[in-house]
Amino acid sequence: MARIIGGVGTTHVPAIGKAIGEGLQKDPYWAPFFNGFHEVHRWLERVKPDVAVVIANDHGLNFFLDKMPTFAVGAAAEYRNEDEGWGIPVSKSAAGIPELSWHIIETLVEDEFDITTCQDMLVDHAITIPMSLMWPGKGAWPVRIVPITVNTVQHPLPSLSRALKLGRSVGKAIESYKEDLKVVVIGTGGLSHQLDGPRAGFINKEFDLLCLDKIVNDPVALTRYSNRQIIELAGSQGVELMTWIAMRGAMTGAVRKVSSTYHVPISNTAGGVLLLSNEKAPAGAQMR
Ligand code: DHB
Ligand code: FE
Question: Strand pairing partners for 186?
Fold first, then answer.
């Protein structure tokens, strides 16, 4: 059976792609953020996942305001990136695993999630940047992916509670998949940021640190915030936190924090990286 070995939460700012393109990982501006991935690389080297289920939000490359699914799941053999207009290099494609995608889709629908299924799907910086951060280098990425997108762009947005439930259903789906695969679940976005309007540049370190703690220890506590409250506390794009909550929801076992980094700012955003190990829970233990 497939097994969830861990979860990663990471910021996905496009400027990271430009920094990678220009080899600026050791530059004083960038180093504190990129250094947060050393521990992730050591962990990946040790656990060697076969698949990454990537929960992200699309920023207009694949879906736009005219058609915006609340949740969409990719079921393609390959996911291409295209010029997104951020001045970042167009990324290599990611390989898919359609059979697992369909298994996740079937489980989500059984669990009453009305999702959009995408046999053709582009992926934007929210997926390509985390992939490049986790598996740097020129060759093909060593994992196949299942992309899942959550609408954080066009209101009404799904609630944080719904995102947590989506993650739980995804976790259940992965662990009932017949093939022996090691799976890492990635949530990408956040932490606090606002890209436009009078509060452009808004960052809330205190709230971000609270989120970093609650994602590990008490994700349900975060679901008590409405999206309006999250926007007030974390900025209008801070709602991308939803993807981290969904990632956490997919952790089926006892969660152990392996590492966490917080660095402000990366472009306009509070840069966060969180690595969780999903461990076998002791018998009778209550999860989450
Ligand atoms: C930035 C952050 C994002 O999450 C994004 O999708 C685009 C830009 C930024 O801080 O520049
Ligand atoms: Fe974003």
Answer: 8, 54
